[in-house]
Amino acid sequence: MPELPEVEVTRQSVAGQIVGGTIQSIHLGKPLRWPLQTDPLSLVGKTIVSVGRRGKYLLFHLDAGCLLVHLGMSGSLRFARQLPEAGPHDHFTLVTQQGSIRLHDPRRFGAVVYAPGVDHPPATQLLAGLGVEPLSPDFDQTRFVKAMRGKRTSVKQVLLAGKVVVGVGNIYASEVLYLAGIHPASRADRVALTRLRKLHAAIRLVLQEAVAAGGSTLRDFSAPDGSAGHFQTMTKVYGRAGLPCLACGQPVTRFLQGQRATYCCANCQRG
Ligand SMILES: [Zn+2]
Q1: Does 175 participate in catalysis according to the annotation?
Q2: pLDDT for 197-208, tens place per residue?
Q3: CATH architecture of 4-127
């Protein structure tokens, strides 16, 4: 599933190519998770002025309105000067005079939704309840520690829920908790203060590293230019069950939390 780093890599890759482009046509495939919420013809003639991101939503700001794009479980965006004919899994294509963007999404949990602005419905509903952006200056250590201490569920579940901080998906949750020395099953409100401070720093560090590495290429994610990310080759615990912990040599363990795989070193990671 594309997580925040993959969405950010997509944003960085696409923005420089498509900003300034005026929409010439929109081509829809099969229905996605949510409908576009406007007549595709009403978008023709609008210009893309910037490409932002909030959580896992890409925000294509138009000179009037905004397109919110979510990659869902299996989506990827592709940009090219000229794209080939749409295939059976291509469900949204936006053509400008500078080139085209296409959403390829075999499982169709992704979506492209139009809103008159990011502070108007349906954008407000889609973006409601998202935690702070981990790579923004708003990700404050004191506020993060306070928010974590107010949660009684496991620290990993709090991270995955995305209400305290967005973007720490399943791979990254195992990684940041390993760096902070926190056992993933620990209750968030019982984790020592020093470790929560370490966790705050680890979240920013790991997500920055993942973006710099081009994200993780799992299943069918690749950047819009077709290049593969390589963060998955840099993980310290994720995907390393049975292999020695890089710090202490004890085998890395794998278990399920909320049906998602968790990796940790039971020797290095505590409450
Ligand atoms: Zn260890």
Answers
A1: no
A2: 999 999 999 999
A3: Alpha-Beta Barrel (3.20)
